Every structure is written in structure tokens, then in C-alpha cells.
């Protein structure tokens, strides 16, 4: 077996392996290759965050605009404090933006849904979202509420 | 009796405070807790007094409830939160119309539940912790029914520019009512059948509630 | 009765001795990190061990990916959840099937070949003549194969995963009509770079160490007879497979455990 052939084929093999790894990283796990885009942090307090995990998505109108970066407990108030990394520049969301924890898909993955409000003021880096709706509870009562409103 | 409806009825608990305030001419604005407490007491009184005619003449009862609520509930702000992004593109007339529709919807839907509020008590939970924002305060209450059930309810009070505390949102049993309505309004605007026409959505909101109960006085012509 | 206990005991002791010998061999071989001159040797071994295994890996991957996708689709559609085929397939492959199946196939194809090769060298006295010439067989024969295995298996696992996913795409999207958007976005949302891809690769590195070690040692330690070589290759495959599966269970427990 000629040395040259061996070298070429090994090189090709290793390249294929590395490309496969890159493919898995990018296409399959969805890591973005572009440099870290500008982002800012928002926080929110919830009464119940059951099922929400780190890196759960934060979305608005169905589009993912961020990820959950941290989930902590505020012992004093008995609430969960969720830290979210939002893409883009601050000032895109109104100060009365609402945050709900909803369930998605058959496997029931939790995510944070943001609903913009009508305030003139906007949320800045590190601001708290004041209008929140925790998980689970909504499911218990939404059916009831919806029936009430006939919607 | 439906729990949620019953709990919404507590909106009506904010009533006579402004009247009482005028009578006693206090210089400092009454604290949100004081307002809520006073209103709870006054409302229980109203329920007693109206028990005679509430069922037979609901229209009258609705009007009385609305009159009591109007000074202490920021219906406009509430409606604004419900319209959310659409508020900006709505005309002043549309905003006014929706506020009225929304207000009467709430009053009509939940006022009757009040009349069934017997043998229950409304307990305020003390909360001396400093609020991060001095112009907002969440007042936590607990409704204990005669049958022994307990439901948490939080009044989101906001200090208006006129230095009077008003109700801006309520959270019943963990459900953020303002956000829930906001979500429904947004869905309605997205809905094919209304084609994003705000007038039609506002009208539909009224119809939906109208179909539920008898119409509130003045809504049909007043629109 | 006593004889039974004695035989069990001596077998146990024999196994322990074997483990001891193999550890010494392993340590000695690894210590002799291949210098630039030995790169040629490693390269050659990567060819034999990695490149030549590609065919079987690719073919198996495609079939397995297709079959898994088919099964997932069938079961999920009962709940109206066909959109989850992508993520089910990806997670299953990345976390478990990719590393494990690749390692098993590797043990069967490359592992047994290594054992046979080395065993043959031992049987034909090549190893001892090398020693006599002052060439360290551990350095020249064993170490390159060890490194080749450690490098090749993870790469093969990555290729396996990719091909298997495509096998799944062909079945679920092209044939069964699952929505490609949902397939890929569901996958992307559920797959974590470190948690799934990373840990799967970590597993395959661990498997690579174990399989290659077993393969090399069995060859090195075999009875220098034709029969002995045959037994050794069989032992390689069996022992590798058992170890891979057992380790997989333990690794999964420790990596994903929250039970």
C-alpha cells in the first residue's frame, strides 16, 4: 500500500470526522456560528416555574428571542427569579411587557412567552418584568376562564 | 358557583374610599391597604343592602357597582394593558369604546357573584416589606368562603398622577387576569374572522359577553 | 467440591493477573508517546483501523437511522406527535446508539483485526525478534494501534451519527412525509451541544480506550498458536462488547442521572 494513498485517505477520514462533528454542533444542536450578537438581560419573578429549565427558550409571537440563563429562588418572597438573555438591543420591549410560562408541543417543554404592552417606557438591561404568569396554575384555571369569556 | 367569577367579584370591593376620603378631607393620600380595607367593608354593606333587588333588577345593581368602582379602578389602564400593542394603533375613540366594553363586561360578568358572597370573609395579609417601586403596591388578600375554602388574590395597586391609589390588575389564584385578557385580545386580533380589524374585535368582545349575560345598560346605544 | 472452588479461585486469580499484565502494558505503551518518526506508524494504523471501518459504519448507520425513524414515526403518530421524530432520533443517536453501536461495530471489525495482527506477530516470533533487535514492540506495534483507536473511534461515531440522522431524514421526511421544518427545528430545540453531542463524544472516547486496550492486549497476551489467536480474537469481540455495554450503563447513569 503506497504511503501516499494512506496519507490521503487518512486525511480524508479525519476531515470527514471533523466535518461530521461540526455538522452535529451546528445543524443538530443549533449553536449559532456568528459572533456573539448584542444582547441584554431581563429578570422576572414568578410564583411557579415548574418545568422551566436553563436554556429554555424565551419567545415572542412565536419567535425565539432569547434563553433562560438562570433560575433562582427568592426565599423571602417565596418566588422564583428567572434571568433571561434577550437578543438584540435593549429598549425593544415595553415596560409593561408580560411574561407567561407556557407549554409547547407534545413533550410539554416549558418556555417563557413575552407579550408586549402599551407603555411608552421600555425595558432596559437588568430591568424586571412586572406582569408575570407562572406555570401550571394557568392550565388549571384557563379552561375555566376561557369558558367564562366564551372565547 | 364558579370560583373565578366569584373571585373577580372582589373588584367591587374597591368602592367608597374616594367618597370617604372626600368626606374626611385627608391631606396625605390614603395607603393602598387602607383603601382596600375600607372598600371591602363598604362593599359587604352594599351586598347586604342590595340583596333585596339584585336578582330581580340586575341592571340597577350593575350600575351601582360600576359607580362605586369607577373612582377606584383604573379601567382605562386595565383596558390599555389588555389591548397592549394594538393600543398604539387604535384611535382615541376605539380606545374609549373598548374601555367601556371591557369595564361593563367585567361588571356584568362578575357582579352577580357578589350577591352570593355570604358567610365569607376577606382577610388582608400584612406585607411590610418595602416595594421596589414606590408607585406600585401589591396588596395580598385571602378570601375564605363559608364552606372553608381559601383563595389567594392579589390587587396590583398603582399610584396615579393625581396621587390616588387605584387598582390596575388583579391576580386571582395565581392567574394574572390582565395578562390572560391581553393574550385573548391578541388572539382575537390574529383571528381570521376579524381580519385584524380593531372595531370588529371590540364589537366581538361585547357580543361575546352579551351572549353570556343580559346586556349592561347603555352599552348597545352607547357604543 | 473443593476442586470446584479451587478451579474458580485459580481462574479468578488468572483473570486478575491478566488485568495486571494489561495495565502494565498499557501504561508502558502510552508512556512511549509516538514522536514525529512514529507518526507514520500511527497514520498507517488509522488507515487500517479507521478508514477501512468506514464502509461498515456508514452502511450500518444509514440502516439504523432509517429503522429508528420508522419506529419512532409509527409510535409517535399514534399520539399525533410525528413532529417529534427528529428530536427523538437525534437524542437517541447522540446519547446512546451512536457511541455504543459504533463501538460494537468497531470492536468486531477493527478490534478483532488488531488482535489477530498482533497475535500473529507473536505466534510467528516477530515480537520476540524485534525485542532481540532492540526495538521495543510496545512502542512500535502496540502504541500506534492504541492511538489510532483512540483517534478513530470518536470520528467514526460522529460520522455514524450524521449518516444515521440522514437515514432518518430519508425515511421520515422523504418517504413518510413528516414536515422537514418541524423535524429539524424540533431537533435543534431539544439537542444541547454539551449535554448531548459532547457527552456522547465523551462516551465514544471512553469506549475507544476500552476497546482498543482489550484488542491490543488480547493480541499481545495470546497463546502463540493458531488456536490461541482464534480464541483471542473471539475474546476481544466478546469482552469489548460486554465492557462497552456495561460502561454505557454506568456512564449514562452518571452523565444523565438525576434519578
Can you walk through the features of this model?
The complex is a heterotrimer of chains A (151), B (223) and C (259). With 151 residues, chain A is of the alpha/beta class. Helix content of chain A is 26%, strand content 35%. Chain A has 2 domains: 1-33; 39-149, no CATH class. Chain A has helices at residues 3-28, 137-149; strands spanning 39-46, 57-60, 63-74, 79-87, 98-104, 109-115, 127-129, 131-133. The longest helix of chain A has 26 residues, at 3-28. Chain A is elongated, with a radius of gyration of 22 Å. The mean pLDDT of chain A is 80. With 223 residues, chain B is α+β, with helices and mostly antiparallel strands. Chain B has a single domain, classed as Tgt2/MlaC (Nuclear Transport Factor 2, Chain: A), CATH 3.10.450. Chain B has 10 helices and 5 strands, in the order αααααααβββββααα. A 5-stranded antiparallel β-sheet of chain B has the order 1-2-3-4-5. With 259 residues, chain C is mainly alpha-helical. Chain C has one domain (35-254). Chain C is built from 9 helices and no strands. In chain C, helix 4 runs antiparallel to helix 6.
Summarize this entry quickly:
Chain B is of the alpha+beta class and 223 residues long. Chain B has helices spanning 3-8, 17-24, 32-50, 58-69, 75-83, 85-89, 92-114, 177-190, 198-212, 219-222, and strands at residues 121-124, 136-144, 150-159, 165-172, 175-176.
Amino acid at each position: 500500500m503506497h504511503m501516499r494513498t494512506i496519507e490521503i485517505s487518512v486525511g480524508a477520514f479525519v476531515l470527514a470526522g471533523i466535518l461530521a462533528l461540526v455538522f452535529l454542533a451546528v445543524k443538530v444542536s443549533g449553536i449559532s456560528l456568528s459572533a456573539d450578537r448584542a444582547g441584554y438581560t431581563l429578570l422576572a419573578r414568578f410564583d411557579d416555574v415548574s418545568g422551566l429549565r436553563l436554556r429554555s427558550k424565551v419567545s415572542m409571537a412565536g419567535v425565539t428571542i432569547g434563553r433562560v440563563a438562570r433560575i433562582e429562588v427568592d426565599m423571602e418572597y417565596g418566588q422564583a427569579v428567572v434571568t433571561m438573555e434577550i437578543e438584540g438591543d435593549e429598549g425593544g420591549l415595553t415596560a409593561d411587557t408580560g411574561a407567561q410560562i407556557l407549554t409547547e408541543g407534545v413533550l410539554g417543554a416549558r418556555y417563557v412567552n413575552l407579550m408586549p404592552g402599551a407603555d411608552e417606557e421600555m425595558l432596559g438591561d437588568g430591568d424586571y418584568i412586572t406582569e408575570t404568569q407562572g406555570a401550571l396554575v394557568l392550565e388549571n384555571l384557563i379552561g375555566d376562564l376561557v369558558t367564562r369569556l366564551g372565547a | 358557583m364558579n370560583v373565578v367569577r366569584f373571585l373577580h367579584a372582589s373588584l367591587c370591593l374597591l368602592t367608597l374610599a374616594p367618597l370617604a376620603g372626600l368626606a374626611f378631607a385627608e391631606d396625605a393620600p390614603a395607603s393602598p391597604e387602607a383603601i382596600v380595607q375600607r372598600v371591602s367593608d363598604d362593599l359587604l354593606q352594599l351586598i347586604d343592602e342590595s340583596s333585596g333587588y339584585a336578582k330581580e333588577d340586575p341592571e340597577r345593581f350593575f350600575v351601582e357597582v360600576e359607580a362605586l368602582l369607577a373612582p377606584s379602578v383604573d379601567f382605562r389602564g386595565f383596558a390599555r394593558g389588555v389591548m397592549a400593542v394594538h393600543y398604539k394603533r387604535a384611535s382615541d375613540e376605539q380606545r374609549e369604546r373598548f374601555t367601556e366594553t371591557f369595564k361593563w363586561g367585567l361588571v356584568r360578568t362578575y357582579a352577580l357573584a357578589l350577591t352570593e358572597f355570604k358567610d365569607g370573609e376577606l382577610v388582608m395579609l400584612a406585607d411590610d416589606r418595602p416595594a421596589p417601586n414606590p408607585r406600585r403596591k401589591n396588596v395580598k388578600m385571602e378570601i375564605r368562603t363559608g364552606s372553608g375554602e381559601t383563595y389567594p388574590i392579589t390587587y396590583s395597586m398603582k399610584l396615579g398622577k393625581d396621587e390616588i391609589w387605584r387598582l390596575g390588575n388583579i391576580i386571582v389564584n395565581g392567574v394574572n387576569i390582565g395578562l390572560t385578557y391581553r393574550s385573548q385580545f391578541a388572539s382575537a386580533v390574529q383571528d381570521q374572522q376579524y381580519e385584524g380589524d380593531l372595531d370588529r374585535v371590540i364589537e366581538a368582545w361585547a357580543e361575546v359577553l352579551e351572549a353570556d349575560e343580559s346586556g349592561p345598560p347603555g352599552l348597545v346605544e352607547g357604543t | 467440591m473443593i476442586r470446584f472452588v479451587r478451579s474458580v479461585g485459580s481462574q479468578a486469580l488468572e483473570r486478575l493477573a491478566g488485568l495486571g499484565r494489561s495495565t502494565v502494558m498499557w501504561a508502558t505503551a502510552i508512556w512511549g508517546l509516538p514522536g514525529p518518526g512514529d507518526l507514520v506508524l500511527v497514520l498507517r494504523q488509522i488507515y487500517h483501523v479507521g478508514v477501512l471501518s468506514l464502509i461498515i459504519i456508514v452502511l450500518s448507520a444509514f440502516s439504523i437511522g432509517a429503522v429508528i425513524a420508522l419506529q419512532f414515526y409509527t409510535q409517535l403518530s399514534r399520539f399525533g406527535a410525528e413532529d417529534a421524530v427528529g428530536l427523538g432520533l437525534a437524542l437517541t443517536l447522540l446519547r446512546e446508539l451512536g457511541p455504543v453501536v459504533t463501538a460494537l461495530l468497531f470492536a468486531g471489525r477493527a478490534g478483532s483485526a488488531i488482535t489477530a495482527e498482533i497475535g500473529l506477530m507473536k505466534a510467528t516470533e516477530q515480537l520476540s525478534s524485534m525485542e532481540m533487535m532492540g526495538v521495543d514492540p510496545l512502542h512500535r506495534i502496540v502504541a500506534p494501534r492504541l492511538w489510532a483507536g483512540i483517534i478513530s473511534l470518536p470520528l467514526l461515531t460522529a460520522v455514524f451519527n450524521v449518516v444515521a440522522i440522514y437515514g432518518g431524514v430519508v425515511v421520515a421526511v422523504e418517504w413518510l412525509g413528516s414536515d422537514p421544518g418541524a423535524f429539524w427545528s424540533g431537533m435543534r430545540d431539544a439537542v444541547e451541544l454539551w449535554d448531548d453531542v459532547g457527552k456522547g463524544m465523551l462516551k465514544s472516547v471512553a469506549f475507544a480506550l476500552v476497546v482498543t486496550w482489550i484488542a491490543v492486549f488480547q493480541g499481545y497476551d495470546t497463546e502463540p498458536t493458531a488456536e490461541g489467536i482464534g480464541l483471542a480474537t473471539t475474546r476481544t469481540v466478546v469482552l469489548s462488547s460486554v465492557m462497552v455495554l456495561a460502561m454505557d450503563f454506568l456512564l449514562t447513569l452518571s452523565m444523565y442521572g438525576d434519578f
